[in-house]
Amino acid sequence: MKILITGTSGHLGEAIARLLKSNNEDYIGLDINPSAFTTHVGSITDKELVSSLVKKVDFIIHTATLHKPHVGTHSNQDFVDTNITGTLTLLEEAREQNIKGFIYTSTTSTFGDMLTPKPGEPAIWITEKTIDIPKNIYGVTKNAAEDLCQLFYRNHKLPCLVLKTSRFFPEEDDKKAVRDKYDDLNIKAIEYLYRRVDIEDVVTAHLLAVDKVQEIGFGKYIISATSPFEQHHLMDLHTNANAVVEKLFPEFKDIFKRKGWKMLPQIDRVYVNAKARQELGWKPKYDFGYILNCIAADKDFRSQLSLDIGIKGYHEETFTEGPYPVLDI
C-alpha cells in the first residue's frame, strides 16, 4: 500500500508522513513548499504533476489547504483555486486511476454560524447532522470540497471519507481578547473539553479512515477530543461552565489554581465524536481527563508528535497584532 499525502510541509501532512516514515511505510508527499517530509514540490492544481503521482499510489490523504489564518491575506479566488480546484484535480485523477480510497481533511469551521448560540440559549450540540452555515470563504470552500467528495462517490463510486477536524494548531489563539486573558496552554487545555484535538489522535483517525474507506464508501466524521459533556449539560454550559466542569472533575479547580489558570465562564458548543469512534474504531487518547492527569503530575500534556512538529506558522511575514491577521468573520 502506498499513499499520496498532500500538504506534507504543513502540520498534519508532516505528522502523517512522520508516522509512516517511522514505520518504514512508503508514501509520496506533495506540497508547494519544500520540507524534509515533502518528496515532490508543486501545486495540487497542476494536473500533469498530480496525474504522474496518483498513478503510483493506492490511496490519497488530502490535507493541503488554505486555512482560516489566510482569510486576511489571500483573495477569495486563492481559496477557490486551492481548496476547490485543487481538490477537484485530485478527485478527477483518483477516479481516472481507480484509486482505492480518498481521505479529505476538512474542518469543523464549516458549521460557521451554527456554532454561536444566542444569549439565554443552550450551547450547541454539534454532530455530523448539524447543518453547515459557513461564515467566511474558508468555510465555504471547505464545504464545497466536501460536496465534491460526496459527488465523486455518488456518481463514480470513488470511496471518500471526510474528516472534519477541530483545532489542533499549536499557534496562539486567533483572538486578542483570549490571548490577553488566558495563558496559551491554559486555553488549549480548556478546549479539550469541547473543541480541540491532539494531532497524534488526528493522524490515527486518518490512518483508520484509509483502512475503512472501501468498506464505508462515503461518510463524514467529526474528529475532536472526546467531550465529557452530555446534552443535559448544554444550558448550564452556556451560563456557568465552571460549575459543570467542577461537577464532572472535582479535582480540576485545585489543579488549575496551582497553575494560576482559570476556566472559561461560558462554553458555546460541544463537538461530538461518537460516530468516528463507532464507525472508524477511533480511540482518541488526549481528552480533558488525560490533560488534568498530566498537569497534576507536572507533565506536558501535548503529544511528542505535536512537540516534534512545533509551530510552523501560516505566513512568511510576521504581524504586530498576533500570530496572523484575523478578520472578525
From TrEMBL:
InterPro entries: Epimerase_deHydtase, Lipid_A_modif_metabolic_enz, NAD(P)-bd_dom_sf. Residues 3-216 form the NAD-dependent epimerase/dehydratase domain. Gene3D superfamilies: NAD(P)-binding Rossmann-like Domain (3.40.50.720). Pfam families: Epimerase (PF01370). Coiled coil: none annotated. SUPFAM superfamilies: NAD(P)-binding Rossmann-fold domains. PANTHER family: BIFUNCTIONAL POLYMYXIN RESISTANCE PROTEIN ARNA (PTHR43245), BLL0593 PROTEIN (PTHR43245:SF54). This is NAD(P)-dependent oxidoreductase. It comes from Chitinophaga qingshengii.
